[in-house]
Amino acid sequence: MPQDRISRREFMQRTGKAAGFAAVAVGGAYFLHEPVRKPFAQKDDAPVSRDLRIAGMPDRMIMVHGGDPAVMTSAALSALGGMSAFVQPGETVVVKPNIGWDRRPEQAANTHPAVVAEVVRQCMDAGAKRVVVTDVSCNDPTRCFNRSGISAAAREAGADVQLPQEARFREVNMGGAMLGRQLVYDIYLEADRFINLPIAKHHGLTRATLGMKNLYGILGGSRSRLHQDIHNSVVDLAAFLRPTLIILDAYRVLLRNGPQGGSLADVEERGMLLASTDHTAIDACAGELFFDLTPDDMPWLGIAERAGLGTSDWRSIPLDEITV
After folding, report:
1. Does residue 32 fall inside a structural domain?
2. DSSP state of 80
3. What is the dihedral of CA 88, 94, 98, 103, to 10 degrees?
4. Within a domain: 255
5. Is the N or C terminus of the chain more exposed, i.e. has fewer CB atoms within 10 Å?
6. Domain limits at 196?
């Protein structure tokens, strides 16, 4: 008699018990599957949002030129008044690089590990109780976290590096034009501060993936449908989770075949870094500087501006340009 077939879920439960966790791909995103626990379901349908900006802090833009990612990161933070202007003793900080792809640092598909490590160190020096570094990867998360160099660099700097587990996602109503009920990794619902660390690179649909698009990595479940109306999806995410600070890595820029890349011929070393408290402004600035895009070329900027999420006229806010 042939053995009875078992369901995929039962198979994952059996192998999960034997091996601990399994990497599972859902809708183009990977997370670690823990079979016993289930995501928390929101009890009511009230929209949820998190604004983790510093109250009363005016928007600014810092543009740093140099050759060392850690030095540029430190210079940008110093120009903004130091990390203590953003992180207070005893706070929990979540730091969100792009760790989406199974790529080496020189391929410029993920945030440079030295930028991540410097941000973690400065958060710890400012007295943070805990600094969590995480992302929901598109490729296998263990390979992405390790091959990018981010896992080792962040841990050495003192971070709690987390490969997301299925049981840690909570279903919340974002109340957006495109995004309603979504699974969000729980640390983004609990942290006191959020620092977004995107990398500037090409994207096939939006022409560039920058700060707001990096927020795709807070979501679990299927993300493929978000691309059906990508500009409104990006703005819904930006309205749902407003960061304390955005630091955009442009040490190396993937100019073609993004967001995953692979060929070094598609990468150009720019030796730059941007920092701002305005998500819309930093996307507008990076789009222009690295991809020759105007706000009209990036429709999400106009939607974000109309929603009160910042300005696409990045030259209208105070700018400090630094060379290190």
Report:
1. no
2. T
3. 110
4. yes
5. N
6. 50-323
